[in-house]
Amino acid sequence: MSSPERGKLLLAVRIRSSGWLFWGWIAISAWVAIVIVEIVATRRPGPLFLFGAMLPLLIRLLHPRLRFFENGVEMPIPPGERGKGAIRFLPWQQIERSDWDRDRLTLVGTQSILAGGPVEGGTVSISPKDRLRVEQILAAKWPAR
Questions:
Q1: How many helices (H) and strands (E) does the chain have?
Q2: To the nearest 10°, the Cα dihedral for 90, 86, 66, 9?
Q3: How far, CA to CA in Å, does 109 sit from each of 72, 91, 96, 130?
Q4: What digits encode the pLDDT tens for the residues 65-93?
Q5: Residue 56: what are its φ and ψ, rounded to 5°?
Q6: Rounded distance, CA 116 to CA 78, Å?
Q7: Residue 113 has pLDDT above 60, yes or no
Q8: Can you give the three-state secondary structure of 2-71, one letter per residue?
Q9: Are residues 72 and 104 in contact, defined by beta-carbon separation less than 8 angstroms?
Q10: Residue 3 backbone zone (phi > 0: left; psi -120 to 50: alpha; other: beta)
């Protein structure tokens, strides 16, 4: 996936979202309950069984991601801050700094009007296994200032 504004996709990592996982487990649990009721009532699984079997795959594929492009970072916006879209794109030159707090990455947008600010950043949780790859991209595309 690439666009002129973003450039080529360099890395995409799934963010750790407790809300997303909560609703995913609720959906899977509801599907299991419906299938059990259907099997008890009709002695065979119906067409809903096949759809539900794909539910874990859909939840995994649709899971929010942090994407690093040649020209910036695309990050999901937290549900409480949703505006026109659910994704925020931060060009590299508009990122003031990045900070880690355990597994939470915070990208701080610039406040400088000359750099296109003020720009909101964001905070996302990232799996510890993905942290090294994220740090390598940040170091290569956005050297510490």
A1: 4, 8
A2: -70
A3: 12, 9, 5, 22
A4: 889 999 999 988 766 665 544 778 888 88
A5: -60, -35
A6: 23
A7: yes
A8: EECCCEEEEEEEEECCHHHHHHHHHHHHHHHHHHHHHHHHHCCCCHHHHHHHCHHHHHHHCCCEEEEECC
A9: no
A10: beta
